[in-house]
User: Fold this.
Amino acid sequence: MSKILLFTENLGSGGAERQLAGLAVFLKNKGYDVQVVTYLKRQFYEQYLIDNGVKYKLHPELFNKYTRIFYLYKVIKFYNPSVIISFLPSANISMCLAKIFYSCLLIVSERSHTMTFDWKTKLRYNLYRIADWIVPNSVSEADNIREHFSFLRKKIKSIPNFVDVEYFQPIPKWRINDVPTFLCVGRLIPSKNVIRLIDAVKLLVDKNIKLKFCWVGKQYDKKYLLEVQNKIEQYNLENIFYLKDQTENILEEYQLADYFCLPTLYEGYPNVICEAMSCGLPIVCSNVYENSKIVIEGENGYLFDPNRVEEIKDSIIKILSLDNLSLNIMKERNRNKVIINNSKDSFVEQYISLFV
Assistant:
């Protein structure tokens, strides 16, 4: 099995796209003949693939969902792969339907936690009967699928996301800012729970606790952005809670911070938590889904109920109360944990193990 086709919607800047692009490069470096195919012209990771010698082709004829299966069959026949790996629901569904007309090992990857089980979700997972493997990126989602779709139990293999630990490194010499600085990374949308975090910061400021928060992420939702800005102004936190748009140099943001905070209401596999840990940052985050398997209370960070402002505040106080020795231990523990659990080699070898 030497020819592998990786298929998804686009090569945009999202976490799923990053994982697919990385997998393509790692498989190519292992000697496989790799082809990446997308149908939407968002190509943030195209240059990364080109720089690493991975073949990539945009197939816009696959955009129309009503004719996609017909053209997808022709695309598959042209590339003639032994293995197909698809990422994200629409790509997964399309590949399952296309597999009716060709014989090939199909691996579908689920990249988020399934929240609702409406008829569309049930249809998707029933179509996964056609796939050979279903790969969620978290243990919590693997358990979730097994619970609701027991007929897929033997096809499920969870593979955690990789982190580029050579890139995401701590600053050479550890220091803490004069004003403790928290970094948050994520799209500025309601599910990221920014408003409750601001409420918690206001409670901390009222207690005369000095701190700064920087939220970095693409500002998709203009209505929500305005709501967040109004809340910051209402509490007079303009010099304490900052908003920054998406940046290509996220490493610098990690290295400028003292702590990392992610207050989201739900998460799939939190890439940003693992990247922050790789940079040696102690973590405070919501106690949802995979977060509680990555962050152990008091060991490498603190967890809170994202719906309770008081709990968010209390977790921040806990981490601010740690002495330098405890912080150093936590930083080293986080870095080592990611090196062990999220290495590139482990990531690619677990996929390769499914090819036989």
Notes: The chain has two domains: 3-159, 181-341. The chain has a mean pLDDT of 93. The radius of gyration is 21 Å. Residues 266 and 288 are 6 Å apart (CA to CA).
